[in-house]
Model the fold of this input.
Amino acid sequence: MDSKFPNNLWARYADDGIIHCVSEKQAEYLLNKLKERMKQCGLEIHPDKTRIVYCKSNRFQGNSKNHSFNFLGYTFRTSYVKSKNGNFFNAFTPAVSKEASKLFRQKIKDIRLNSKTLSMEKLANLMNPVIRGWMNYFMVYGSREARKSLDLDYGY
Done:
């Protein structure tokens, strides 16, 4: 990527990646080039996980069938946000994914269900690292969404 496509920002983690393109045509070209390169290495791009996503916002008003994607526990999608000046607008932003929120709530629920006889202090000692880890990871981007995920529904 750095040598062949230096103008395209990209991020990779393990076998997942994101490449920023300026047009759908460029994205299709780059995807075909990546498929060719992977084939040379005896690899292939996962057909179900790979797609071109349009990052729709006030600045980019085009249209496409894909308007969101998940990456590293975040869902990147168009949302209504408030600017520093107090104006509201549409932007393409990250938020905690539904899957990550569900997993977090399940971890907390499992701790509670498996620790019914523990004191509050011991229960807090078990829960705090999980909550702290969640906060440290997800409060960086979209803190409002991360806080909403902390609203646990225990049914009472």
The longest strand covers residues 74-82.
